[in-house]
């Protein structure tokens, strides 16, 4: 079972890229972020024609998350329990039954948090606290769990081409990184780092200043695995090639395979 995450940065604007990627890579489950569409406006029919059913938690013009699956979806959870602002569509979760058995998949779009020192940064940290509480409860079920998405967190200096450029950004603040470390400290495995421990592993390149051409990237899209899911992991990767497509998202897909 291949589980992927992709901040699509507008599903209607990138639908052709999304469908091309689905056809070329055939992931079993996809967590999408920043669909920027109300639930009713999501291109469900075109997704179905590609062989995927969809569960959607949309929002007009901003945010929005979705789960796509080639396998049956059950027990869908819309919204993060205990989240500080339920008016923002940032979390969706479901049980997926496939060849690798039953896996619980959570897709998240964690708040950006900029600028520092404002209520936006406080909201980011409060959301991370609520997410940590939810993951802690889910881990008690002792089942394969994958929580994947745009975390808006640069975990370490190695996760940025130029870490000094991010010292005043909410994505790289000590409080942000500590909150992420508390998550992994619950017993979660960072799937990308488990298979790709070295430098130069990025999932986001800004549209400005030729960041893609200079490979001036950061790694902020993560797949965290419970011990039961990590035991099944065979490999993981990042589909960098999509960033070179016409009208690309500034993020690229990241994925993990479970046996």
Write a concise synopsis of the structure shown.
The chain is of the alpha+beta class and 259 residues long. It has one domain: Deoxyribonuclease I, Chain A (4-Layer Sandwich), CATH 3.60.10.10. The N and C termini lie close together (6 Å).
Folded structure, characterized:
The chain is an alpha+beta fold. It has one domain: 4-Layer Sandwich (Deoxyribonuclease I, Chain A). The protein is 22% helix and 26% strand. It contains 6 helices and 12 strands. The protein has helices at residues 15-25, 44-49, 119-139, 174-184, 191-195, 227-230, and strands at 2-7, 29-33, 53-57, 65-69, 73-78, 91-98, 101-109, 145-150, 189-190, 221-225, 233-238, 254-258. β3 (53-57) and β4 form a beta hairpin. α3 (119-139) runs parallel beside α4 (174-184).
């Amino acid at each position: 079972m291949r589980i992927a995450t992709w901040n699509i940065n507008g599903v209607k604007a990138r639908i052709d890229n999304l469908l091309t990627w689905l056809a070329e890579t055939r992931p079993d489950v996809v967590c999408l972020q920043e669909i920027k569409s109300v639930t009713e406006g999501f291109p469900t029919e075109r997704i179905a024609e590609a062989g995927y059913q969809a569960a959607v938690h949309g929002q007009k013009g901003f945010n929005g998350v979705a789960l796509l699956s080639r396998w049956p979806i059950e027990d869908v959870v819309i919204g993060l329990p205990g989240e500080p602002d339920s008016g923002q569509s940032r979390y969706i979760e479901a049980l997926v039954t496939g060849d690798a058995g039953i896996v619980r998949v959570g897709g998240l779009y964690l708040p950006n948090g900029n600028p520092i020192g404002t209520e936006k940064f406080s909201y980011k940290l409060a959301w991370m606290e609520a997410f940590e509480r939810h993951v802690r409860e889910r881990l008690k079920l002792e089942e394969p769990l994958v929580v994947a998405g745009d975390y808006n967190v640069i975990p370490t200096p190695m996760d940025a081409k130029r870490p000094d450029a991010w010292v005043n950004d909410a994505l790289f603040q000590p409080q942000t990184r500590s909150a992420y470390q508390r998550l992994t400290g619950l017993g979660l495995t960072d799937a990308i780092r488990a298979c790709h421990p070295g430098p130069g592993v990025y999932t986001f390149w800004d549209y400005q200043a030729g960041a893609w051409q200079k490979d001036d990237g950061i790694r902020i899209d993560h797949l965290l695995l419970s011990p039961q899911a990590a035991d099944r992991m065979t490999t993981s990767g990042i589909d960098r090639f999509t960033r070179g497509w016409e009208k690309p998202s500034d993020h690229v897909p990241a994925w993990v395979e479970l046996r």
